[in-house]
Specification:
This protein is mainly β. The protein is 10% helix and 41% strand. It has helices at residues 8-16, 69-73; strands at residues 21-25, 31-32, 47-51, 55-64, 82-89, 94-99, 115-125, 128-137. The strands form two sheets. The protein has a five-stranded mixed barrel with strand order 4-5-6-8-7. A three-stranded antiparallel sheet has the order 2-1-3. A hairpin with a 5-residue loop joins strand 1 and strand 2 (31-32). The mean pLDDT is 88. The structure holds zinc ion. Zinc ion binds next to loops.
Length: 139
């Protein structure tokens, strides 16, 4: 368990530690990832951290061939699009994340409903260290 505040910042800190964490409402048990300060179901404010397994299925995705300069700097372009997915975790919550499969991604190989597992993309950009939540095909 963790005493970190229920915030996007904490969520990102956990990502930096290779942990996908959600918030569970202690009142009704609803799960949120990223966590919320207030429960959408019962409006309770007592949340606790729970670690997600990091597995789920693809609920939807968009591939972007021409992205912002920050993405171009990471090597994404028309021949190597980056894809943003909505992933339905096995625990229930939906997270928005990058889809990766190592090599240049072929959007035609991305299928709604496919099994995915989490991966953490650590980017070290000078002082600006951040972790991108991503998923890749499982198995
Ligand atoms: Zn609740």
């Amino acid at each position: 368990m963790s005493d970190r505040p229920m915030s996007d910042h904490s969520f990102e800190q956990f990502l930096g530690e290779d942990r996908l964490m959600g918030g569970r409402c202690t009142g009704c048990g609803a799960l949120f990832a990223p966590p919320r300060a207030v429960c959408r179901e019962c409006y309770g404010t007592d949340m606790e951290w729970v670690e997600m397994e990091g597995t789920g299925k693809l609920a939807g995705f968009t591939c972007i061939h021409i992205g912002p300069p920050s993405m171009a700097a990471e090597g994404y372009d028309r021949n190597n699009p980056y894809c943003t997915a909505a992933v339905e975790l096995d625990e229930g919550p939906r997270v928005v994340a990058r889809v990766e499969n190592g090599d240049a991604l072929q959007p035609e190989k991305i299928i709604i409903g496919m099994r995915l597992k989490v991966s953490f993309l650590h980017r070290d950009d000078g002082d600006d260290r951040k972790t991108i939540l991503a998923f890749q095909p499982a198995g």
